[in-house]
Write a structure and sequence with these properties.
It is built from eleven helices and ten strands. By secondary structure, it is α/β, with parallel strands linked by helices. A hairpin with a 3-residue loop joins strand 1 and strand 2. The structure holds coenzyme A (COA). The site of coenzyme A (COA) has 15 residues, from helix 2 and strand 6.
Length: 275
């Protein structure tokens, strides 16, 4: 098992799965500037680490995250605009620019509290699996700010207009079951099954062609904001990029196994990959 060491983030890689955990359990994993710098660096490293095939983002100590650190990220940086700008850039970069377009599949594993700014990594990850008893809260409205960073924008990625307005304007708490019902997350499971469910789900991606996964997820995300003509052009170019990048040559292998060898049916599962 490989590990990366940071002050505020713990990274463990085991059997192809990287677990990147916010590690300020005493502060409910509230996100300080140092945590943002650590996570930004960790995700950049994991993206090119061949041992990490899929990345799980979570929090130590039974909580996902209590959002931005109100003391260290907000109050203490008010009089330090230079550091504030640097910390805000790192915060947006790892929670959105990196995670949303990440080269590898990403899963947010949510337990305990998921509050405010933590919605960004929740929404940027490809999948979110939560404990049924997790607590979600867009708390900003309770204390004089709005869901900033990119939270309000990120909400549009998963939530419908009515739910985005409802939970942002009321600050009402909701649990994992409700989060699944409004499609904020992929699914909710009993808390005792969370780790096992996420591990089994992540294992699927360890076995799949990484370039196909990358092209597919980036294609789906990129065309959301394009018109039909742009999407068509983009997806053609992305398909060519995928074939050029895929050292395994999944396209030709799949066709050969189906058409020539008759050993495989694409409609029923993955082609036989080299060991
Ligand atoms: N920023 C800074 N510190 C925070 C924090 C945050 N967002 N969330 C929790 N902490 C700190 C608390 O100040 C406390 O520190 P202390 O032990 O030095 O006093 C410690 O973490 C434990 O917090 P506590 O409130 O006692 O835990 P709890 O389990 O009773 O409640 C929450 C958990 C998440 C409900 C509560 O901490 C909270 O409301 N946090 C603020 C969440 C928020 O609005 N975030 C939005 C930011 S965008």
């Amino acid at each position: 098992m490989a590990e990366y060491k940071y002050e505020c983030v713990k990274v463990r890689i085991r059997d192809g799965i990287a677990w990147a955990s916010l590690n300020r359990p005493d502060k409910r994993n509230a996100m300080s500037p140092q945590l943002h710098y650590d996570m930004d660096d960790a995700l950049a490293r994991l993206e090119v680490d061949d041992d990490a095939k899929v990345v799980v983002v979570t929090g130590e100590g039974g909580n996902f995250s209590a959002g931005q650190d109100l003391k260290k990220f907000f109050r203490e940086l008010e009089k330090n605009p230079g550091e504030r700008k640097k910390a805000a850039a790192a915060a947006n970069r790892w929670r959105w620019e990196r995670l949303y377009q990440y080269d590898k599949p990403t899963i947010a594993m949510v337990h305990g509290y998921c509050v405010g700014g933590a919605f960004m990594q929740l929404l940027a990850a490809d999948f979110a699996i939560a404990a049924e008893n997790a607590t979600f809260s867009l708390s900003e409205v309770n204390w004089g700010i709005l869901p900033g960073g990119l939270v309000s924008k990120a909400l549009q990625v998963c939530l419908g207009y009515r739910d985005a307005l409802y939970y942002s304007l009321t600050g009402e708490l909701f649990d994992g079951k409700k989060a699944e019902e409004i499609r904020l997350i992929t699914k909710a499971v009993p808390a005792k099954d969370l780790k096992q469910t996420v591990t089994e789900f992540a294992r699927r991606f360890v076995k799949m062609n990484p370039e196909t996964l990358r092209g597919t997820k980036q294609g789906i995300k990129a065309v959301r904001d394009m018109d039909v003509g742009q999407a068509h052009e983009y997806l053609m170019a992305k398909s060519n990029e995928l074939k050029a990048r895929d050292k395994e040559d999944g396209y030709n292998k799949g066709i050969k196994q189906f058409i020539d060898d008759k050993t495989y049916k694409p409609g029923l599962g993955a082609y036989k990959r080299p060991e």
